[in-house]
Amino acid sequence: MFGLAEPAGRQKPGRSGGFPNMASVGDFNVLGASIPATKVELSVSCRNLLDRDTFSKSDPICVLYTQAIGNKEWREFGRTEVIDNTLNPDFVRKFIMDYFFEERENLRFDFYDVDSKSPNLSKHDFLGQMFCTLGEIVGSQGSRLEKSIVGIPGKKCGTVIVTAEELGCCRDSVLMQFCANKLDKKDFFGKSDPFLVFHRSNEDGSFTICHKTEVIKNTLNPVWQAFKISVRALCNGDYDRTIKVEVYDWDRDGSHDFIGEFTTSYRELSRGQSQFNVYEVINPKKKGKKKKYVNSGTVTLLSFLIETEVSFLDYIKGGTQINFTVAIDFTASNGNPSQPTSLHYMNPYQLNAYGMALKAVGEIIQDYDSDKMFPALGFGARLPPDGRVSHEFALNGNPQNPYCHGIDGVMEAYYRSLKSVQLYGPTNFAPVINHVARYAASVKDGSQYFVLLIITDGVISDMAQTKESIVNASKLPMSIIIVGVGPAEFDAMEELDGDVVRISSRGKFAERDIVQFVPFRDYIDRSGNHVLSMARLAKDVLAEIPEQFLSYMRVRGIKPSPAPPPYTPPIHVLQTQI
Length: 578
Hints:
One of its GO terms (biological process) is cellular response to calcium ion. Belongs to the copine family. Probable calcium-dependent phospholipid-binding protein that may play a role in calcium-mediated intracellular processes. Residues 16-147, 156-279 form the C2 domain. By secondary structure, this protein is α+β, with helices and mostly antiparallel strands. It has three domains: 38-167, Immunoglobulin-like (Sandwich); 172-308, Immunoglobulin-like (Sandwich); 320-556, von Willebrand factor, type A domain (Rossmann fold, 3-Layer(aba) Sandwich). It is built from twelve helices and 28 strands. The protein has helices at 134-139, 231-235, 266-269, 284-289, 312-317, 353-365, 406-420, 430-442, 463-473, 491-497, 530-542, 545-556, and strands at 38-47, 60-67, 74-79, 95-99, 106-113, 125-133, 144-148, 159-166, 172-181, 194-201, 207-212, 227-230, 242-249, 257-265, 278-280, 298-308, 321-329, 373-379, 381-383, 388-390, 393-394, 403-405, 422-423, 448-456, 478-484, 504-505, 508-509, 515-519. The strands form seven sheets. Strands 17, 18, 21, 22, 24, 25 and 28 form a seven-stranded mixed β-sheet that branches. A four-stranded antiparallel β-sheet has the order 4-1-8-7. It has a four-stranded antiparallel β-sheet with strand order 3-2-5-6. The longest helix has 15 residues, at 406-420.
């Protein structure tokens, strides 16, 4: 978020924390799996519901269900209030949901006409239902989705309007500064080398690390630099949740000495510099042993400043479109598509790895693209009729218009081209990256952002050209996702990912980190549950996109467009015949 750690769900292998004896203080992930990207509030209205009451109008209620990823089971999430005697309800009770860009959250809204006090839904008249995803609501114009209610054959069940509003506390950050006085001396030859470690408490009483200050050498009265942290990371938006702060004396060998700790909360800290924000640092062991023990020093809050960040959803709500392009590797190393050993094998009963990666990522991104038309490209094949090798060909066979309708259209074009082209080589990425970059270069005003998904089986042949393409593309509104399928060594891809070392070409470094690489084999579910492996894959490859998107907008100074004015649904007054 603020250069503190990896985005959610992304654990890097092979990184050792500098604190081997303190797992909690080592490498940490500010936005750990439990912290949602943000929270959104859903408001529900209906128009022209079915009338199930003989002498008056229906008394509607809305019940929201969410779907578990693995077993597809629907679970009740919540209910609105009942509104008496109306076919055009605007429900007051909202649904507050965690929103992750990188996850597909399936929703089902069921409507009933309530006839009694019974909480059992089967005792009431069903008025119909609507299915959608949370991304579909957020990605609609003005984050407002209007859809027909279905579910009763032969009847018009009316329409439902669902509006999503991002909750404010999720986008606040705080800038805080602390100092300490008279800390315990821990070093034999000098004073202590103190630093602070902040933890937020979780629902189950455990603690998760969320920030570490720098070390101030050789002092018992340190003043740490001010630091910025999101309110989500600090307390998950819960102002009264306990925040535990530990004070340590830094040691070169990693065996840092514990000086003491104190607890506070966001609400207490938000009072700013005052007598309330001077904390005694307590070492429970010392306190237990020494009768005269008072404290191990004090820590004082010097300043507390709230800043509101613009969020990814502000841009989406203001109308920014995310354009999705897919590029598929048709090199001969994939194996003959008619053989079951081939990575391109068309098994009638299940998707191959290319199909799974494409569907997993595409089905989430398509919610943010209003026309649902996606360019689909191939590279590394010989094309009919003359067998020329191409590294940038349209899967649908139409170079003037490589667009396919929806992810299903892309899948269809992929299967069709497997039957007509000859797998060949080499594996060149630069042409497809440059293809998308040409489009991205023509709209730099923040109204569109481009995501290129490259699915490949292997070792790249044009490394120098690809690096140059990526360095050039890092100035443009685009991100690149590379999914490696099959058993090959993908070391070169890690270099393109640029998370460890920023990628460079001819002495020029990439302006932003725009490449995310993952090997598909890391996601294959051993129990054979492809739905789970696809969900995990999508989560990891898409988790960095909102931050990459925001980094482009920030560097360019592009502010979100204002959202269209809020919609007030018209109430249709039905003229009654006398």
